[in-house]
Amino acid sequence: MAIVKLENVSKHYRLGEQDVKAVSDVSLAIEPGVFLAIAGPSGSGKSTLLNIIGCIDTPSSGKVVVEGKDVSGQTPDQLADLRARTIGFIFQTFNLLPVLSAAENVEYPLLQFPELGQDERNARVARYLKMVGLSKYADHRPNQLSGGQRQRVAIARALATHSRIVLADEPTANLDRKTGEEILRLMKKINRRYHTTFIFSTHDRRVMNMADRLVRIEDGRITQLGVRSEDGWVFVQDQTRGEEAPEV
Q1: Any domain includes 50
Q2: What is the CATH number of the domain that holds 153?
Q3: Which of 36, 82, 127, 248 has the fewest C-beta atoms lying within 10 Å of its C-beta?
Q4: Block means of pLDDT (10 residues each) for the chain, length 248 residues?
Q5: Model confidence over 206-242: pLDDT tens digits?
Q6: Is residue 206 part of a domain?
Q7: Sign for the pseudo-dihedral over CA of 183, 184, 185, 187
């Protein structure tokens, strides 16, 4: 069963006198455990699509299903709880709290889980900081860490909630080439070992080269779906309205 399914999803914004169609009639089913890149030029709608998948934004029309639950009509509180327990986020600007240490940043989203005591929170923080190779930097604040180290903290924070889905919006954009490749290899390693679903919004060729699934989007519409095989990419063109959502 698909971990995320979109059915005829559209998102329109009113910008002054203009009606902006950020996403138009997108249908897509995403398998659990994939390493998927949503790729397209600036303004193509890829970040909007990622935000809809992550329940940060709601579609103007269409249906969004996450882990078998239709989230299209849920309240903001219900969506917040779903995001907290199911979806982790990694941003290009890291979005760490500057007054907190690395360990405290990883622990912060766990504080909204009343069932987790201090011992369990400490254990998770230690585990995921170790996983990203930052155990000895636990007490460092973000301004004492490099860009790559801050992104590793963000990865640990996304995983500490035991999220089955991690959404990454241009996660390598503010990193140099070497550091960006190290971060991508780390995420791919986590993806393979723990079967965590990673979904990227990107125009970075390195992310696309490492992905095993590729969704190309232009002007708010899917133009290509790609599945990596032993012989390279196998592409299918965009689906037409009314057909079953293609699975990647």
Answers
A1: yes
A2: 3.40.50.300
A3: 127
A4: 94 85 93 96 92 92 93 85 90 93 97 94 96 96 96 95 94 90 94 95 91 94 90 69 58
A5: 999 999 999 999 999 999 999 998 888 888 754 444 4
A6: yes
A7: positive
Q: Which domain holds residue 169?
A: 4-237
Give me the number of domains the chain comprises. Answer: 1
Q: Which residues contact 89 (CB under 8 A, 6 or more apart)?
A: 54, 83, 95, 158, 166, 167, 168, 169
**What would the two tokens of residue 231 be?**
């012989």
Query: Is this model's pTM higher than 0.85 or not?
Result: yes
Asked whether residue 14 is assigned to any structural domain, the reply reads: yes
d(CA 68, CA 15): 34
Q: What are the tokens at 206? A: 């390195």
Any domain includes 243 = no
Q: Which pLDDT value is given to residue 245?
A: 60
CA dist 6 and 215 (Å) reads 13
Angle between helices 147-160 and 118-131 in degrees, nearest 10: 140
Q: Phi-psi region for residue 233, left (φ > 0), alpha (ψ -120 to 50) or beta?
A: beta
State the DSSP code for 31. Answer: -
